[in-house]
Amino acid sequence: MTGYSTYTRWQRIEDWAKKLGFRLADPKHGWTGVGDTDTVALYPDGDSLPIYARDTDIFTGTFSQVETFLTGWVRYQQYAAILGAADDRRVKRYEEKELARQAEQRKRAEQKQMMEVLRASDAENRAKKK
């Protein structure tokens, strides 16, 4: 029954992480403690948590440690909401602002790359004409 209980625990943690904007995956750096065979990492999921890079592992640990981290994440959100420091509307607004900034940055990088290609092509065409 150990395999089934581990599987259901994984599913429960995965669902909880998904609701908070994370996804579970294997740790990239292979960090494990002695005897910790069920080590996982939390990564940002999709467009949630836009200030983090998509490939950044935010937390790495055992199932128990991940559950503790997620509990702390929820408690902090509740605390910030009670203080009025952050509410869902404000967080959403800043996340949208950050996503727009990142999209603009990608657009500028693509335009810069396209201009470099066009300049190289133009220089190549001029060299052929001579």
Structure description:
By secondary structure, this protein is mainly alpha-helical. The protein folds into two domains: 1-86, no CATH class; 87-130. Helices cover 63% and strands 9% of the residues. The chain is built from three helices and three strands. It has helices at 2-20, 63-83, 88-129; strands at residues 22-25, 40-44, 59-61. Helix 1 (2-20) runs parallel beside helix 2 (63-83). The protein starts with a helix and ends with a helix.
Instruction: Outline the low-pLDDT stretches.
Output: none
Shape by Cα distribution: elongated
Spatial strand order of the main sheet: 1-2-3
The SSE string, one letter per element, is HEEEHH
Q: What is the typical, i.e. mean, pLDDT?
A: 82
Short structural description:
The protein has 130 residues and is mainly alpha-helical. It has helices at residues 2-20, 63-83, 88-129, and strands at residues 22-25, 40-44, 59-61.
Structure keywords:
130 residues; mainly alpha; 2 domains; three-stranded antiparallel sheet; 3 strands; 9% strand
Ordered list of secondary-structure elements with their pairings:
Layout: H1 2-20, E1 22-25, E2 40-44, E3 59-61, H2 63-83, H3 88-129
Helix pairs in contact: 1-2
